[in-house]
Write a structure and sequence with these properties.
heterodimer; A: mainly beta; four-stranded antiparallel sheet; about 50% strand; globular; B: mainly beta; 11 strands
Chain lengths: ~110, ~110
């Protein structure tokens, strides 16, 4: 069945460091791919998404490119800030049932 | 921000008691979802709804029931709460179009003693 695998955390970085959080998926067809972010004590919110191969989603300095050849959707940011400390979830939507398949989340802590 | 509220936001209850959580939306979205979030398990879908009175099970539906009598409200009921249902519960909504965003509520923290 469909699945999402993302790198385990926690990830700890210093401010202004480069961030990569790996996400790979297994799905039939052409899924839509998402990154959500959850700040402490809050619900999840969409960070970015891509709905077809080679699309790049971007928001708040974060980017991810839908790579069908490697079934990946890695999240990157060139220079993280303390305010980026959160849990990041990769997810996919495959088929027509409008359900998301979720990765387990990666916790990021950015130190000043 | 999408108009989604959850009530209550926090609840402590005892094993064996019934509990109902409410999700209310003002966006007129067709799809509504209930998730639970637990350490080490990420988000797991409990039930979802694709219209008034139209619901279906998710991956962890045992011990839970849902109802949707109006577009704006989606209720999650724990018929007889157990300690394993201690969790944070999130409601989400979406328009139901392919590739569309799910918008999340602020969550309900439930402790079953």
């Amino acid at each position: 069945g469909d699945s999402v695998t993302q790198m385990e955390g926690p990830v700890t970085l210093s401010e202004e460091a480069f961030l990569t959080i790996n996400c790979t998926y297994t799905a039939t067809g052409y899924p839509s791919l998402f990154w959500y972010v959850q700040y402490p004590g809050e619900g999840l919110q969409l960070l970015l998404k891509a709905t077809k191969a080679d699309d790049k989603g971007s928001n708040k300095g974060f980017e991810a490119t839908y790579r069908k050849e490697t079934t990946s959707f890695h999240l990157e940011k060139g220079s993280v800030q303390v305010s980026d400390s959160a849990v990041y979830f990769c997810a996919l939507e495959a088929g027509n049932n409008r359900k998301l398949i979720w990765g387990l989340g990666t916790s990021l802590a950015v130190n000043p | 921000d999408a108009g989604i509220t959850q009530s209550p936001r926090h609840k402590v209850t005892e094993t064996g008691t019934p509990v109902t959580l409410r999700c209310h939306q003002t966006e007129n979205h067709r799809y509504m979802y209930w998730y639970r979030q637990d350490p080490g398990h990420g988000l797991r879908l409990i039930h979802y709804s694709y219209g008034v009175k139209d619901t279906d099970k998710g991956e962890v539906s045992d011990g839970y029931s849902v109802s949707r009598s109006k577009t704006e409200d989606f209720l999650l009921t724990l018929e007889s709460a157990t300690s394993s249902q201690t969790s944070v519960y999130f409601c989400a909504i979406s328009s139901g179009q392919g590739g569309e965003t799910q918008y999340f509520g602020p969550g309900t923290r439930l402790l079953v003693l």
